[in-house]
Amino acid sequence: MHVIANSDSDEDQILKLKVRDAVLNEGEEIFDGSLTSANAEKLLIPQKERLEETAREVIRKNGFDYDVRLEIGKDFFSTRTYDDRITLPAGEYEAVRVIIGEGKGKNWWCVMFPPMCLPAAESSDDAELQDILSE
């Protein structure tokens, strides 16, 4: 899963984390470990509009008028190391992307198969916000 900010501005990066939290919370029954690469589209498509609307509400409540879209499909990823424990080789993977506005900012990502998004979101908040605010 990728949540991609509108830009790299501090405000957009903080907004990205708020959108991430809201989407993961709203889709808790989807992101609870039952999502697999085989059933991702089947489970997410019926929830797509609801998750996008949740993201839009967060964006509006924070004073922005960005659009947001949720995309599901294969995407190419370079080699990634996850939480300093798991290295994923470069290749094409099934992905869920929440794209805020122009989607030109840094992204937050997590591994969905197996489910690692909720623990990653919970543990990264303080460190990532501290990094943003200290720049």
From TrEMBL:
Organismal lineage: unclassified sequences, metagenomes, organismal metagenomes
Organism whose genome encodes this protein: human gut metagenome
Protein name: Sporulation stage II, protein R
One Pfam family here: Spore_II_R
